[in-house]
Amino acid sequence: MIKLESKYVFYFYMAVSVFAFIFTFYHIPAYMNDGIMEVGPKFLKDVLIESSSTKAILTVDLFFLSLPLIAWMLVEGRRVGIKHYWIFIYAGIFVLTSAAVPLFLAARERKLSFVDNRWSVIDIHAIELAIVGGLGFCIFGVGVWFSVTL
Q1: pLDDT one-digit tens code per residue, 54-67
Q2: Backbone angles phi, psi at 9, to 5 degrees
Q3: For the chain, what is the HEC assignment?
Q4: Mean pLDDT (whole number) for 71-99
Q5: What predicted TM-score, i.e. pTM, was given to this entire model?
Q6: Which letter, b or e, does each residue of 48-80 get, where b requires 16 or more Cβ atoms within 10 Å of its Cβ?
Q7: Arithmetic mean of pLDDT, 68-96
């Protein structure tokens, strides 16, 4: 077992949010030829109307994942007492779910873990840490791959 301070979980969530924002917004200029107000409609047309099976699978999967995440953020934000939790919900709906959810998780971790002016300690198995690290490395690689090749 590894003793892990919860501040590292907080920083992990923050890093995921930042990288999700960077790797996703890298592709936004492709939709901005007609101005910023056309980004949403052009994106939705591309995803929902001119969609391939792969896009459809990923879009439907993300939409169905977003619904319980948004409901959970609403309930958990109220339960834990996160100030302005609704900002994370709106960001998840209108901007980026992949950046807003980890940002909410960071706020939640900070709220739950920072008690008595110190971070709490989490017991975690080395294999669990290795799995998350390996998965994170792969996902980061996919983000880089899409940013370089598209």
Answers
A1: 877 888 888 899 99
A2: -65, -45
A3: CEEEEHHHHHHHHHHHHHHHHHHHHCCHHHHCCCCHHHHHHHHHHHHHHCCCHHHHHHHHHHHHHHHHHHHHHHHHHHHHCCCCHHHHHHHHHHCCHHHHHHHHHHHHHHHHHCECCECCEEEECHHHHHHHHHHHHHHHHHHHHHHHHC
A4: 91
A5: 0.85
A6: eeeeeeeeeeeeeeeeeebeebbeebeebbeee
A7: 91
Residue 131 pLDDT > 80: yes
User: Which comes out higher in pLDDT, residue 95 or 112?
Assistant: 112
Using CA atoms of 103, 109, 115, 117 in order, give the dihedral in degrees to the nearest 10: -50
Q: Cα separations (Å) of 64 from 23, 67, 96, 117, 144? A: 22, 6, 15, 38, 26
